TrEMBL record:
<dbReference type="InterPro" id="IPR017867">
    <property type="entry name" value="Tyr_phospatase_low_mol_wt"/>
</dbReference>
<dbReference type="GO" id="GO:0004725">
    <property type="term" value="F:protein tyrosine phosphatase activity"/>
</dbReference>
<protein>
    <recommendedName>
        <fullName>protein-tyrosine-phosphatase</fullName>
        <ecNumber>3.1.3.48</ecNumber>
    </recommendedName>
</protein>
<feature type="active site" description="Proton donor">
    <location>
        <position position="123"/>
    </location>
</feature>
<feature type="active site" description="Nucleophile">
    <location>
        <position position="8"/>
    </location>
</feature>
<keyword id="KW-0378">Hydrolase</keyword>
<feature type="domain" description="Phosphotyrosine protein phosphatase I">
    <location>
        <begin position="2"/>
        <end position="147"/>
    </location>
</feature>
<keyword id="KW-0904">Protein phosphatase</keyword>
<dbReference type="Pfam" id="PF01451">
    <property type="entry name" value="LMWPc"/>
</dbReference>
<dbReference type="InterPro" id="IPR050438">
    <property type="entry name" value="LMW_PTPase"/>
</dbReference>
<feature type="active site">
    <location>
        <position position="14"/>
    </location>
</feature>
<comment type="similarity">
    <text>Belongs to the low molecular weight phosphotyrosine protein phosphatase family.</text>
</comment>
<dbReference type="InterPro" id="IPR023485">
    <property type="entry name" value="Ptyr_pPase"/>
</dbReference>
<dbReference type="InterPro" id="IPR036196">
    <property type="entry name" value="Ptyr_pPase_sf"/>
</dbReference>
Amino acid sequence: MIKILFVCHGNICRSAMSEFIMKDMITKKGLADKIQVASSATSREEIGNDMYPPAKRKLDAEHISYTRHHARQITKSDYAEYDMILCMEQYNIRNLKKIITDDPDNKIHLLLDYSDTPRDISDPWYTGDFDKTYNDIKEGCEGLLKRLTIK
């Protein structure tokens, strides 16, 4: 089982959307028994909060199902639990390294490192552009699935 943790600042937009988009993709590919997905935040600001309503609306528009979400902050023990920790932007990696001080197993990357054009995923909390965020996340998840070695 491959365990993937998506990480953003608050865990109410990008990382939560990534979790549900990836779950949808792996279910459609028949890989739900081989890949486990979750999400978390680097900050404590939104702990316990559900996904941001515009993020839900975008997932609804794309026919991506989701469940009630509870934002949570990543913990040091998550490093041992997950095989991959995929951040949305460099800022998340910097903050993550304050919590998980070292990355000896090279688990921490940007989600879009798995795309043809590695880059940050802009925070739609500030940009309001949930279409662009969705497209970037989808691109990253598709690229990631192509590169994973599933046993």
